[in-house]
Amino acid sequence: MSAALTIARKDIAIELRTRSALLSVVVFTLLALATFYFAWDPTAVAPLDLAPGVLWVTFTFAGLLGLQRSFGVEMQDRAIDPLLTAPLERESIYLGKAFANLAFVSTVLLVALPMLALFYNLPASAAVKLAPVALVAAIGLVSVGTLFSSMAVNTRLAELLLPMLSLPFFVPVVMASAQVSTRLMHDRPMSEAMPWLKLLIAFDLVFVVACAVAFPFTLEE
Fold it and tell me: In terms of Cα–Cα distance, which of 96, 122, 103 is closest to 182?
């Protein structure tokens, strides 16, 4: 865990110095939320009915943009080689990258949720309730996306391969998150959202462990 936190701090420090990926993803998130807002007819679909789908479509593709840089930054000057030869467990590399990606994605959420509340007249209390659900969903997306980012980075079509590999696994997360978000935005009882929330938590538990175990085998290739 100590090695994983060191790798995470290194990746976060690099991103804070460059800010290239973070700025591009934040701009994409703001543009997507604004585009959806001006493209729909409020008399046909109520804002609260549209908001969950807009949030999770935007968040999914913004997350993919950020995940592409996870291992891409290590390929410059073959920085991945000393990382792999360092005396640490390969699982620590995965966890460190996942922690950094989670911090990156959480920053996007901090921007997306207030803007969603502003554009779609979302009550502040609903936005606060959505934050923990969004964090649980982010863990699932990051766990899968980090693994596939390591697999796709050495290919010639990494920008295309990562979405193709990740999106099928993102479907359960996006579906469950949208269902929970819909019920929270409409002030429905939490008991109605619990089956979907349990699905999110189960996805996280399974795929965090499975991806950490599978990660060392991706490096062998």
Answer: 122
3-state secondary structure of 143: helix
Q: What is the pLDDT of residues 22-46, one digit of tens each?
A: 788 888 888 888 888 888 777 777 7
R_g of the chain computed on alpha carbons: 18
| Cα 166 to Cα 50, 133, 135, 158, distances in angstroms | 24, 20, 18, 12
State the burial class of residue 67 (Cβ atoms within 10 Å of its Cβ: 0-12, 13-18, 19+). Answer: buried
pLDDT in tens, 139-154: 999 999 888 888 877 7
pLDDT at 170 over 70: yes
Q: What's the DSSP call for residue 78? A: G
* In contact, 108 and 26? CB cutoff 8 Å: yes
Q: Which bin fits 78, alpha (ψ -120 to 50), beta or left (φ > 0)? A: left
Average pLDDT over residues 73-93: 73
Q: How confident is the model at residue 77 (pLDDT cuts 50, 70, 90)?
A: low
Q: What is the distance between the alpha carbons of residues 177 and 56, in angstroms, rounded to a whole number?
A: 7
What does the block give as tokens for 171? Answer: 């479907």
How many whole angstroms separate alpha carbon 78 and alpha carbon 81?
6
Provide the total of helices (H) and of strands (E) in the chain, helices listed first: 8, 0
Closest CA to 169 of 140, 197, 193, 146: 140
Q: For residue 42, which amino acid is it?
A: P
Contact 11, 97 (CB under 8 A): yes
Contact 198, 73 (CB under 8 A): no
